[in-house]
Amino acid sequence: MQTNQNVQGIRTSGIDLALSLEHAFEGIGQFQFVAAGTKVVRWDLQGSPGQPITHYVGTITGPFTATPRYKVNGTLGWSLRKFSAQWESHYLSSMAVSEVDPVSSRSPFFTGNYWSHDLHGSYALSDRVKLRTGIVNVTNEHPPLVPEVGNATGVNVSAYDNRGRWYFVGGNYSF
User: Fold this and answer.
1) Burial 143-175, CB ≥16 within 10 A → b, else e
2) In the structure, how many helices (H) and strands (E) does the chain have?
3) Are 33 and 4 in contact (CB under 8 A)?
């Protein structure tokens, strides 16, 4: 008789750090700085007891998603009366394309560090109506092409936004 068993084991550890500062300056507005980062120390998977442990820290091919060793998001913001603007930056550290293959097995084997930046603005027409606009991926950074299977290359969309630069306009109405 066979029964289903969940014997797979995952061990993770890491460090999360966040910092938020705000200060108002008379006549020139409110300034904001926010930074949040993660360092993944361990992300290990063991398929079943006695099998080898696979270490996924710093790889783009993990079982659930890419696992960069470092991931940081930062925001600089400013607001004055009805107007606000924010600059956001996103950082992912370089990742290997395989957790088990040797470096010489694929080219490129590492993604390289990745930065992207967004710009957002909003204007409150009234207490109920707010307009917003922005540019996502201002510098039009393209995600790294990485070897996926055989000779094909692709982009890991769990880690990177593959749309390039794009714009948005919108509004909110509260009632």
Assistant:
1) bbebbeeeeeeebbeebbeeeeeeeeeeeeeee
2) 0, 10
3) no
How far is it, in rounded angstroms, from Cα 52 to Cα 71?
Answer: 27
Of 51, 64, 66, 67, residue with least CA distance to 9: 51
Residues 99/61, Cβ–Cβ less than 8 Å: yes
Q: Which residues contact 7 (CB under 8 A, 6 or more apart)?
A: 47, 48, 49
**Cis peptide preceding 144, ω within 30 of 0:** no
pLDDT at 149: 43
CA distance 53 to 160: 27
Sketch the domain layout of the chain as residue ranges.
16-40+71-173
Quick one: DSSP state of residue 104? G
Q: Mind listing the pLDDT tens digit for each residue in 29-46?
A: 999 999 999 999 999 988
Give residue 144's identity as a one-letter amino acid code. Answer: P
Mapped onto helix, strand or coil, the DSSP state of residue 103 is helix
Residue that has been written with the tokens 């390289």 in this structure: 112
Place of tokens 């409110």: 30
pTM of the model: 0.83
Residue 37 burial by Cβ neighbours in a 10 Å radius (0-12, 13-18, 19+): middle
